[in-house]
Amino acid sequence: MDLVSARMRASLKGKHVSGAERIVLPDDIPEVLKELLNRPKNYDSLIVTLERLGSVETFKAFLPVSSYTFSSVEEAREFALSKLIVAGVPESVARRAISLLSEGANPKGGNMRGAVLMDINSGERLEPDRERGIRTVRVDWENRRDVKERILSKGYTERTLDALALANKNILCGVVAELCWSDDPDYLTGYVASKKTGYVRITPLKEKGDPLGGRVYFIPKEKTGEIIRCLEKRAILLRW
C-alpha cells in the first residue's frame, strides 16, 4: 500500500507561523489531519496537502543528539560558530550566516518561508527564490511514536523530533552543515547539525520576544541542483 505525505502550512498576515509533515498509511490520515490542524496557535490561512508517494526510502538516523545551555545569546552564538567551524564551515561564512538569521534573511525584511542555501566556500546565497527559500519535505520517522517517547523521555520536545528528522535528511542529501533557530518569539533553542558534530541543541540563540529566525544550509555550490532535488522531492523514512 502506498504511503501518503500529509503536509500543513499556516500563515498569519502573510507570514509563515507553523508547518509540519507526516508520512503515513492512508488509513491513518484522519487522525494525522486532526493533529496537524491543531498545531498552529494562530493563523488566518492554513493549507493541507495530501500526496500519495510512489516510492519511499528508509534510512537509519545517524545524528547523535547533545544539548548545551549558556547564560547569554552572545556565548551561545559563539559556541554555535565553533561547531560550524568543526563541521567544515569557514569562520567568515559561519559568521555571515549567524548575522543573516539575526537580521532577517528575507530581502524584503523578516523571515523566509524556507531555508537559505549558502555556498560553504564563499558564503554566496544559492537559493533560486530568496523569499521562498528551500524547504525540506517528504520526510518522517518510520516508528514515530516510539521515537517521540524516547525524545520526550530525554527532556526534549516534539520540536526536536521534527527538526532532528529534517536534519538527518539534509545531511543525507549532501548538506554539509546546518544552522537553525526558530522564528517563534518564545522558543530560544536552536541547533547546529553535521556529520562531524551530530545534532547539537543550543540555548539561547536569540533573545526572548525576537521574532526572527530560520535555517541556513551550507552546501558545495557545484551540487546545488542535485541537493535541491533531493531535499524537495526524495521521500525518506528514518528509523531509530
Please tag this protein with its features.
single chain, 240 residues, alpha/beta, 2 domains, six-stranded mixed beta sheet, three-stranded antiparallel beta sheet, 6 helices
What do you see in this structure?
With 240 residues, the protein is of the alpha/beta class. The protein has two domains: 3-54, no CATH class; 59-239, no CATH class. Helix content is 30%, strand content 30%. The protein has six helices and twelve strands. It has helices at residues 29-37, 73-87, 91-103, 144-153, 158-172, 224-233, and strands at residues 3-12, 15-24, 45-53, 57-60, 65-69, 116-119, 139-141, 177-181, 190-194, 198-203, 214-219, 236-239. The strands form three sheets. Strands 5-10-9-8-11-6 form a six-stranded mixed β-sheet, sandwiched between helices. Helix 2 (73-87) packs across helix 3 (91-103). The longest helix is centred in the middle third of the chain and has 15 residues, at 73-87. The protein is globular.
